[in-house]
Hints:
Layout: H1 10-19, E1 34-36, E2 39-41, E3 48-50, E4 53-56, H2 67-79, H3 81-84, E5 96-100, E6 106-111, H4 130-133, H5 135-139, H6 159-183, H7 188-204, E7 207-212, H8 216-227, E8 233-238, H9 246-259, E9 266-269
Parallel strand pairs: 7-8
Antiparallel strand pairs: 1-2, 2-3, 3-4, 5-6, 7-9
Helix pairs in contact: 1-2, 1-6, 6-9, 7-9
Amino acid sequence: MCAGIDAPGTPREILRGYFGDKKAPERFREDDVVTAGFVTIGPGVGPVEVGPRQWIADERGHQRPVELATVPLMVEVLTKWDEYVSDPAAIALRGATYVFDEDGRELYGYKSRGVLMYSETMARPLTFLKPYTGEDVARNSMGTKDDGGGDLVRGRGALKPAGKAMRILLMLFKLENKLQAQLLGATEDDYAAARKSIDDTTSSHRIVVYTYGLSPFSFGALAVLDEAGAEYKNVEVGPESFLLNREKSALRAELLKITGQSSLPHVFVDGT
């Protein structure tokens, strides 16, 4: 999650998980109690306690702060890690959703450019199933309270203002990307050469992977392609983002312009 924080949509999804979403239904049934370390939520959408303090007060009728981040990650995924992650090399892969009929024909497909998203409508991620399940189930499969807002009682604590810091962090990552090349003396010729290199490489190979040599996410992406038997061109931009020379910094800056992200790996398939 942290390594892909400047991938498209990822910071927004992180913030949605921790700070709530008034467009999404509640994630707890009325008798649910969830304890993850020093965080306790419940019963139901009761107070959220962090240690001895209640940081977020009762909010009803929508996805509250911490609900999404706590239930799927801390409780569901981490307690069933081996079931969900059968191949650790796939951790760095981006999200996608497909629906096939009994003959294997694709009825629906969505591929995300971010590392946490798997649906076009993450607040209600199963809306694409409406033609098959009906609107009520597709919009709120758990059947929890859902009024799109509800009575809001603002909580105390540092979680909500921390969201602004995340947005600033994203801006800093992108600014660092551009400043690095400038500080190393990159010229317009360097940027033009970098763009030509990307265009030439992606047009000459069906699959092109831009990686960092020391990045575990890069290792994971290459391992998945190797296991699948895919033929690809690996372009190692450098050992890590902070160990690039002038030309490679310009290449990284051009990748940001093309893809909207400065983190690697980035995989181009058929030029995109």
